[in-house]
Amino acid sequence: MNNAIHQPQTVVVLGGKSDIARAIVVALDSASLRTVVLGCRNTDTADAAGLEAQLSGATVTARHFDATDHAGHADWVSAVASDHGDLDIVIQAFGQLGLDAADDPVAAADLVNVNYAGAVSSGLAVADRLRAQGHGVLVALSSVAGVRTRASNFVYGSTKAGLDAFTTGLGHALHGSGARVMTVRPGMVRTSMTEGMDDAPFTVDAVDVAAATVNGLRKKKAVVWAPAKLQGVFGLLRFAPDFVWRKLDT
Amino acid sequence: MGHQELLTGWGRTSATSATVESVGADDVAQVASGQRGAIARGLGRAYGDPAQNGGGAVIRVQPSANPVWIDTVESTATVDAGVSFDELLRRIVPHGFFVPVTPGTRFITVGGAIASDVHGKGHHRDLTFGHHVLSLDIVLADGSERTIGPDADADAELYWATIGGMGLTGVITRATFRLLRIETNRCLVETQRLPDLEALIAAMSDGDADHRYSVAWVDLATKGSTVGRSILERGDHATLDDLAEHAPKALRNPLAFAPGSLASVPPVPNVMNRLAVRTFNELWFRKAPKQHIGTPTLTGFFHPLDGVGDWNRFYGTSGFLQYQFVVPFDAIDTLREIVDRVVANGNASVISVLKRFGAESGGFLSFPKPGWTLTFDLAAGVPGLGPFLAELDQLVVNAGGRHYLAKDAHTTPDIIRAGYPRLDAWKAIRRSVDPDGRWASDQARRLDLL
Lengths: 250, 450
Ligand SMILES: Cc1cc2nc3c(=O)[nH]c(=O)nc-3n(C[C@H](O)[C@H](O)[C@H](O)COP(=O)(O)OP(=O)(O)OC[C@H]3O[C@@H](n4cnc5c(N)ncnc54)[C@H](O)[C@@H]3O)c2cc1C
Ligand SMILES: NC(=O)c1ccc[n+]([C@@H]2O[C@H](COP(=O)([O-])OP(=O)(O)OC[C@H]3O[C@@H](n4cnc5c(N)ncnc54)[C@H](OP(=O)(O)O)[C@@H]3O)[C@@H](O)[C@H]2O)c1
Prior knowledge:
heterodimer; A: alpha/beta; Rossmann fold; two-stranded parallel sheet; 42% helix; globular; B: 8-stranded antiparallel beta sheet; 13 helices; 21 strands; binds flavin-adenine dinucleotide
């Protein structure tokens, strides 16, 4: 159960090695947190112990999870729930940048399969469980890259646009069920995903996204921008003429 | 057929969705509980999550056509569990009776009063509501109905597991309990204004025993030299002679009881901001004379907040918490420390309540035990509440105290376990009557009560 001050007892991460997701788990730590499940492609490198050491008392376990195993997602969620009870917060954090996707149709389809199709199948499986337990929050990591797609990463951006449309819509579908979805739209974040890349404007750290996420949960928001400024920035950029947008995107 | 409903407690936090079934006592056994179980719900006046059950069933027991029987010779009443204290008082006060114990609102049910083993301003003398129950009917997990009481040896354990058992032993359908005889619908109340916490502690430590009722309203929202300035109210039911002396006009209809309908608070964003709280408290404490004897009505004395319906909406969409704990009398330093922390933290709202408890009632999970109990409200949306409350929780249990399950909405299984030494014994009894886990609530899941 999430208690009255939005502290969860059980948190599940899909894409359990994600720097952003792990920072969120740390920000959610409290005397109430008991169980963290890290769903990872490769459990050997999950470093559950490393995360556990950052928490005050919760047990962290790694469990094999692949975003592309669409057919297995429903069973995966059921198995986690039967081992650990109610899922209070599920963080959907897997994702790839797919730098070669624009030049390689197969790599592009693979990216869609992870970032979008994986989010849809696992998101529906999670929603089913949350609906059945009458409460819980799915936190989905979208991106501003999907708000207006750019020449430099439009395939990635398109997967996030799809994910974002899916998770915000799922939130509406769950209205009144006790379950909620919160879609998080970060700008550029310094994590392993963006390692070696130059900072874009408004670049933040994983802890900043985590703080914004926890704040959004407290306020029961449907959408969170990180940093918050990006909401206004994209409110304008979204409608900038194409030639202006292309100019900004260099 | 039930309907799906999002439910919260009075604090309007942690909403979950359940199938609500409104049934008569005879149909309780038929309610399908499924994998997520079922729990009884009264009027939802518990602040947190004990009367909700995400994904499962929530049972509202509807009163029958003749829900209240009074035995005027024995001074007892037999009442359907779904009857509210509001209705009960409307029926019994005109006959010269009052409930043996009432909480600060009359919008609770008899079932809720037993399941939370509620206390009132008279706890130092009258103990809890459960203390006055003579027998109760309960529907058990296997569908059987049993009448149990405090003395019938075989069932005494189940009885004391049910008193304060938060609905987790079964659904109470009816209860017989003692009534209190009263001569009038007024109280004779002495009000004293005290400058600070030390003066209040001294005044309460000496003199509570002379009155049936005693409670203090404390200002924990104002910093500075007036920390703990308070209003101490001590009183008794007014006799006809008292009215002749103090309020002769009230003698015209001394047992009338017909409180008016409620003014409602429209849904608003959080208007309980710090400024509003301070202004309110300033007015409240200024208004009270240094010392005064009055004859408030029963409602005015026992249920002052009931004049404003839905006042919980003042806190806006984030809702609020009511923090209530008890620490033993010898842990007075912990009480002082918590008061200092709450004042320093600056988020306590409006009026806080301090009271001295008498003996335990016998319920395995009943909250009151001898000591000081303090109650205050906090807006749940305030950032950083978690660490602050976790520290208070620890101070309370370290001092041998505990938290009230009917109010709790945030704490942990460890804190509850530390506060309730008979928890394991209670669980064993509970499991013996519910081996397959038919009864379940959000609170039970959150606090590992099952
Ligand atoms: C303004 C206000 C003032 C209050 N003051 C006090 C006070 O002074 N002292 C005090 O002790 N409490 C106080 N309370 C708390 C309140 O008295 C308790 O929470 C009480 O249990 C609420 O009763 P309810 O009928 O609304 O029950 P609910 O809140 O609906 O349920 C509370 C518990 O009772 C169980 N329950 C309800 N009906 C049944 C049944 N038929 N069979 C089995 N279990 C059942 C539920 O499962 C749940 O665990 C106050 C609350 C408010 C809002
Ligand atoms: N960093 C940014 O600038 C930024 C900005 C906006 C949005 N986001 C989004 O935020 C989320 C978290 O990103 P991050 O920055 O924390 O990156 P990260 O540290 O690289 O985390 C992404 C994780 O996804 C996992 N993953 C990839 N493919 C998977 C698959 N098929 N199955 C299961 N897991 C898979 C990766 O696991 P492996 O370790 O096994 O590769 C990796 O741990 C992503 O959805 C990302 O798109 C990031």
